[in-house]
């Protein structure tokens, strides 16, 4: 050995006293081994060893802050402000938080800050440092011990770093600090002393302009005062000493009544909850609150319905939905949406049905049509409730305890009195704020700047919910900006979906820095990639050989989807006689607009001669057609195996400035699905499948794949009933059967029927999920992708957009080793990368690590989809808000895609991609009545003799239809699935919940009126409507088709007129050019007549 190593084994002891969640006091004695190689982790330190590992504090920080245990436990959120830098957290403080916190949330929050590179925060292991550790004193409290250890650490940091920095100890326990200082040897004259400040003093001196931190501190102090009040003995049910847990469970048959002076009953002790779960008399699940009936309706999605052991009569009731209804806030017992709760079922005679009528809040909330498979279960709650008949009921229960809270950051608004605030509010005091999420109850908040909060959206965190309060207590965290500002509303959407975006730190961006010379040396036409290449038999379209590896793609042409589509399917031209005799290349060139237009579309062809341009154009056209043929064949085979081709409606926002996507919103344009989109998508699916096969072959337990579970049978019920109303029968036993059924469900007279069925199929799908092949306990059959009909699938083709693709790239490159062909051993394409990055098995995630990463990606992927949908709703609302009420663009054609209870239906507006509720009977009791001649809707008062009834034909297993009956004249108006109606789009502006879309019925369908002179009953209605139904439906469809034909003819005429106008302008320009030639007769004539033209005539001619 070249150097001698000294191993220091100085041992000491540490006694830890704390209370368990059950209230039991525990005293532990631990051995502590002390050492000298515990580093300060500061870049400003002159010792190289202190800069060797882990997160380091920047050298430009001049004030280092050590946080005491009490401040870290109760005020850590203040130190999360990015402006506060140089935070040193000692192990003593971290242990104090872990031992004294009532739950794990504060400890986890600090751990996340230590792991977050954006936070300027480090952990100092002072209890392992020989110069910083001291054993606890006799009868010394945990807080005093933590303060004493932090003082010693602060003193050591100041001595270690010298005059280069100032060390500040944040503590309110100054008596202990003074005692420690009196017993500590002063630092040398060259070193300054440690500064000891309370948190308010620290903010006032060093961050006087950080008003947000001051507001947060005030709110936290007020919330802490509530916590430190005398404990409420009714928070947990008091159990006599002679009563066992099983006896507590047996006596909890119905909800307990609140104690005098309390609003809610106490929760059952944790030991009794566990006993009830083991016996099967209690059920565990996740609480899901209704979006539009938040105060009255909620569902508990059972996480383990098999615990119903001793109640066999409930197995059938829970087998179909695995959900239990919780009615009202009292039965919810202070649980918030997302909490893991324990419930007990009510007696069967107290079970009730859940209303499927359109609520007042839902009638003001239209939504964007889902464009991805896997609609979330919470969004299916209102639609699935309609499947419950009037005589069926749901199992109902009540919350007896809460296992874990799901409290998060909530965006809230202080609603003025005119918008519902009960009573006025003073500048300082407690106020009720309304969360942006309708499912969350209002929150009590203490503030010192109420007038400022009334104009902003801000973040609030819930601290507690005591049984004596109707509302939970919370504290202010951060302001987002003024209400209605686009940036504020965008931040609201991100935070509400747990996608808060912060600026990257310098340490994170350092690895991505690239010199200007290196950047200039890389041509924009050369792109490094990991590729999959196939050798295909063109006769049978079978894959003969596959090559995986690194390649450098040198693009010959940069084509957009639109340009490739124009080459594949050139636009029609009205001048056909002259072009029919042209060669194919020349014909394609003329259809694309000529050489000048082609040079603008494809810049690579701009400087070529015409002959060379034609050759390249023909070669490009044949290549595109070959790709389309290959992709079409692959798609046809995949669909034959059961692949689903679902429809989606995507709407793009057209801005005034299309380049920068800024300015006014000019229009909402449905995105056109081109053949090129489908071609590229199919080839990407093909590549993803083969990469998944290769990864699983080499690393069967360390691969990241993507699976799509089959939907639950009950999710198809709405789709089946909807299809049955048009006489279609859907087989949902397998994806192949469903695909064949949907292909056959074609109505040649109304193409919108097929679109509605495909949209409902999309909503019935479950979510596709990333998973680890070695840690998620799945069988090989569960690896499959239901929607794509593939046994293996992953994401490989979009590494610039998805982290999952980067993980798959690493697995694939590790599997390839030297990047040669995986089959033949002789690649057909050689890598030109001079120094490729080589991955080994040590660079891959373990199965458990990969499983955690996959769960995170699934959560983020789902949240991103929801934010995309919510953002689209926001822009749609902004678009319609700027339009006058009488603007024709507000009127839109819609098709009824679902009936809701007995007061309305759901309409799909394809023009704008909107799906929303339309009331036939509004919340004020007014009923829509259509004029027999024009079909225009008039809203009749509640006492006008009209009633709305949901009618089911006993001979048909469909959704039935809605009838508006006039009891005075016996007239009946009918609304049924797939009827076309006209709606107007309005904007509902809520201070607390932002902008939203609202649909209102303008005209009913042409089949709405059924005249009758006899009293209305079900039998009469059935006979009356059945007789003329075919005629009415055919007339409606013919009318729609005629309208479509007229629109197409008008569009073709407008295009022809535009081409004619352009041709006229070109002809006129040519004539003018010839007239201005010096040799033209026009110039000779001007020379002859100019001397004899009078001045007035010359002036008139000039003008």
From TrEMBL:
<dbReference type="InterPro" id="IPR022966">
    <property type="entry name" value="RNase_II/R_CS"/>
</dbReference>
<dbReference type="GO" id="GO:0003723">
    <property type="term" value="F:RNA binding"/>
</dbReference>
<keyword id="KW-0694">RNA-binding</keyword>
<dbReference type="GO" id="GO:0000956">
    <property type="term" value="P:nuclear-transcribed mRNA catabolic process"/>
</dbReference>
<dbReference type="GO" id="GO:0006364">
    <property type="term" value="P:rRNA processing"/>
</dbReference>
<dbReference type="GO" id="GO:0000177">
    <property type="term" value="C:cytoplasmic exosome (RNase complex)"/>
</dbReference>
<dbReference type="GO" id="GO:0000175">
    <property type="term" value="F:3'-5'-RNA exonuclease activity"/>
</dbReference>
<keyword id="KW-0540">Nuclease</keyword>
<keyword id="KW-0460">Magnesium</keyword>
<dbReference type="InterPro" id="IPR012340">
    <property type="entry name" value="NA-bd_OB-fold"/>
</dbReference>
<keyword id="KW-0698">rRNA processing</keyword>
<dbReference type="Pfam" id="PF00773">
    <property type="entry name" value="RNB"/>
</dbReference>
<dbReference type="Pfam" id="PF17849">
    <property type="entry name" value="OB_Dis3"/>
</dbReference>
<keyword id="KW-0378">Hydrolase</keyword>
<feature type="region of interest" description="Disordered">
    <location>
        <begin position="1046"/>
        <end position="1065"/>
    </location>
</feature>
<dbReference type="GO" id="GO:0000176">
    <property type="term" value="C:nuclear exosome (RNase complex)"/>
</dbReference>
<dbReference type="InterPro" id="IPR050180">
    <property type="entry name" value="RNR_Ribonuclease"/>
</dbReference>
<keyword id="KW-0271">Exosome</keyword>
<comment type="similarity">
    <text>Belongs to the RNR ribonuclease family.</text>
</comment>
<dbReference type="InterPro" id="IPR041505">
    <property type="entry name" value="Dis3_CSD2"/>
</dbReference>
<keyword id="KW-0539">Nucleus</keyword>
<protein>
    <recommendedName>
        <fullName>DIS3-like exonuclease 1</fullName>
    </recommendedName>
</protein>
<feature type="compositionally biased region" description="Basic and acidic residues">
    <location>
        <begin position="1046"/>
        <end position="1060"/>
    </location>
</feature>
<dbReference type="InterPro" id="IPR001900">
    <property type="entry name" value="RNase_II/R"/>
</dbReference>
<dbReference type="GO" id="GO:0016075">
    <property type="term" value="P:rRNA catabolic process"/>
</dbReference>
<feature type="domain" description="RNB">
    <location>
        <begin position="457"/>
        <end position="818"/>
    </location>
</feature>
<keyword id="KW-0269">Exonuclease</keyword>
């Amino acid at each position: 050995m070249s150097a001698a190593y000294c191993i220091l084994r100085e041992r000491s002891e540490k006694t830890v006293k704390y209370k368990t969640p059950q209230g039991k006091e525990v005293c532990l004695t631990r051995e502590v081994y002390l050492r000298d190689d515990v580093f300060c982790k500061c870049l400003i330190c002159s010792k190289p060893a202190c800069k060797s590992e882990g997160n380091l504090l920047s050298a430009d920080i001049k004030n280092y802050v050590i946080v005491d245990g009490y401040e870290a436990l109760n005020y850590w959120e203040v130190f999360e402000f990015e402006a506060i830098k140089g935070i040193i957290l000692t192990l003593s403080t971290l242990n104090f938080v872990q031992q004294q916190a009532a739950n794990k949330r504060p400890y986890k929050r600090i751990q996340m800050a230590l792991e977050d590179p954006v936070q300027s925060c480090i952990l100092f292991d002072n209890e392992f440092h020989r110069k910083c550790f001291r054993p606890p004193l006799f009868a010394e409290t945990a807080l005093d011990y933590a303060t004493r250890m932090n003082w010693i650490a602060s003193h050591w940091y100041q001595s270690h770093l010298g005059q280069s920095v100032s060390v500040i100890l944040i503590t309110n326990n100054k008596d202990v600090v003074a005692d420690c200082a009196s017993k500590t040897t002063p630092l040398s004259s060259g070193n300054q002393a440690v500064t000891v400040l309370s948190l308010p003093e620290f903010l006032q001196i060093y961050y006087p302009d950080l008003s947000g931190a001051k507001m947060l501190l005030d709110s936290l102090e007020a919330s802490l005062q509530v916590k430190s009040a005398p404990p409420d003995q009714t928070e947990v049910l008091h159990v006599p000493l002679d009563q066992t847990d099983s006896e507590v469970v047996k006596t909890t048959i119905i909800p307990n009544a609140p104690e005098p002076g309390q609003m809610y009953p106490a929760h059952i002790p944790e030991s009794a909850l566990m006993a009830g779960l083991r016996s099967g008399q209690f059920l565990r699940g996740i609480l899901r609150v209704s979006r539009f009936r938040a105060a009255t309706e909620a569902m508990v999605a059972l996480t383990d319905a098999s615990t119903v052991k001793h109640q066999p009569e409930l197995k059938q009731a829970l087998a179909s939905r695995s959900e239990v209804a919780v009615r009202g806030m009292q039965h919810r017992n202070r649980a918030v949406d997302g909490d893991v709760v324990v419930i007990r079922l009510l007696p069967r005679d107290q079970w009730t049905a859940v209303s499927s009528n359109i609520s007042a809040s839902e009638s003001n909330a239209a939504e964007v049509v889902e464009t991805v498979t896997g609609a979330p279960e919470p969004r299916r709650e209102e639609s699935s409730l309609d499947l419950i008949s009037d005589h069926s009921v749901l199992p109902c229960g009540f919350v007896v305890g809460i296992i874990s809270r799901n409290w998060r950051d909530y965006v809230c608004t202080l609603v003025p009195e005119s918008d519902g605030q009960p009573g006025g509010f003073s500048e300082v005091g407690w106020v009720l704020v309304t969360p942006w999420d309708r499912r969350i109850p209002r929150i009590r908040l203490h503030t010192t700047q109420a007038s400022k909060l009334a104009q902003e959206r801000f973040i609030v965190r819930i601290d507690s919910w005591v049984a004596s309060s109707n509302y939970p207590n919370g504290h202010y965290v951060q302001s987002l900006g003024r209400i209605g500002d686009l940036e504020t509303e965008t931040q609201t959407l991100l935070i509400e979906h747990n996608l808060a975006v912060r600026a990257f730190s310098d340490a994170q961006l350092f690895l991505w820095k690239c010199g200007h010379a290196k950047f200039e040396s890389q041509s924009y036409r050369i792109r490094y990639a990991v590729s999959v290449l196939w050798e295909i038999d063109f006769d049978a379209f079978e894959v003969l050989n596959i090559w995986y590896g690194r390649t450098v793609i040198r693009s010959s042409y940069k084509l957009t989807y639109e340009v490739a589509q124009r080459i594949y399917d050139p636009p029609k031209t009205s001048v056909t006689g002259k072009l029919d005799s042209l060669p194919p290349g020349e014909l394609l060139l003329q259809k694309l607009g000529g050489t000048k237009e082609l040079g603008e579309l494809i810049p690579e062809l701009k400087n070529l001669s015409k002959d060379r341009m034609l050759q390249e154009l023909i070669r490009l056209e044949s290549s595109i057609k070959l790709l389309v043929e290959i992709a079409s064949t692959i798609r046809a085979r995949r669909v034959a195996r059961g692949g689903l081709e679902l429809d989606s409606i995507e709407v793009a926002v057209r801005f005034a400035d299309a380049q920068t996507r800024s300015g006014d919103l000019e229009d909402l344009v449905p995105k056109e699905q081109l053949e090129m989109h489908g071609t590229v998508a199919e080839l990407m699916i093909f590549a993803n499948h083969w990469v998944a096969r290769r990864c699983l072959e080499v690393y069967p337990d360390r691969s990241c794949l993507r699976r799509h579970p089959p939907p639950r049978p009950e999710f198809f019920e709405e789709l089946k009933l909807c299809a049955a109303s048009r006489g279609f029968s859907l087989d949902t036993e397998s994806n192949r059967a469903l695909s064949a059924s949907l292909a056959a469900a074609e109505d040649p007279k109304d193409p919108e029927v097929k679109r509605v069925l495909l949209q409902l199929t999309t909503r019935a799908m479950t979510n596709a999920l990333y998973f680890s092949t070695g840690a998620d306990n799945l069988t090989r059959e569960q690896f499959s992708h239901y929607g794509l009909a593939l046994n293996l699938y992953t994401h490989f083709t979009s590494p610039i957009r998805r982290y999952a693709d980067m993980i798959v790239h690493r697995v694939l490159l590790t599997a390839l080793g030297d990047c040669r062909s995986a089959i033949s051993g002789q690649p057909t394409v050689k890598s030109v990368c001079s120094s490729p990055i080589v991955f080994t098995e040590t660079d891959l995630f373990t199965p458990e690590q990969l499983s955690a990463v996959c769960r995170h990606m699934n959560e983020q992927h789902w949240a991103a989809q929801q934010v995309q949908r919510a953002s689209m709703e926001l822009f749609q609302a902004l678009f319609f808000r700027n339009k006058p009420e009488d603007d024709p663009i507000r009127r839109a054609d819609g098709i009824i895609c679902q009936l809701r209870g007995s007061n309305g239906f759901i309409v799909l507006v394809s023009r704008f991609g909107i799906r929303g509720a339309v009331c036939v009977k509004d919340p004020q009791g007014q009923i829509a009545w259509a004029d027999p001649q024009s079909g225009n809707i008039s809203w009749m008062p509640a006492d006008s003799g009209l009633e709305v009834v949901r009618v089911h034909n006993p001979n048909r297993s469909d959704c039935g239809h809605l009838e508006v009956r006039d009891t005075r004249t016996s007239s009946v108006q009918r609304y049924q699935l797939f009827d076309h109606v006209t709606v107007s789009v309005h904007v509902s502006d809520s201070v607390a919940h932002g902008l939203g879309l609202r649909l209102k019925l303008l005209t009913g369908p042409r089949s709405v009126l059924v005249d009758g002179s006899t009293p209305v009953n079900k039998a009469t209605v059935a006979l009356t409507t059945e007789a003329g139904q075919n005629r009415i439906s055919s007339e409606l469809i013919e009318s729609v088709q005629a309208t479509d034909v007229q629109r197409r003819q008008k569009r073709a005429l407008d295009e022809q007129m535009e081409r004619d106008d352009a041709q006229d302008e070109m002809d006129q320009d040519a004539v003018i050019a010839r007239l201005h030639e010096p040799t033209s007769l026009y110039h000779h004539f001007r020379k002859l007549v100019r001397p004899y033209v009078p001045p007035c005539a010359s002036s008139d001619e000039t003008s």
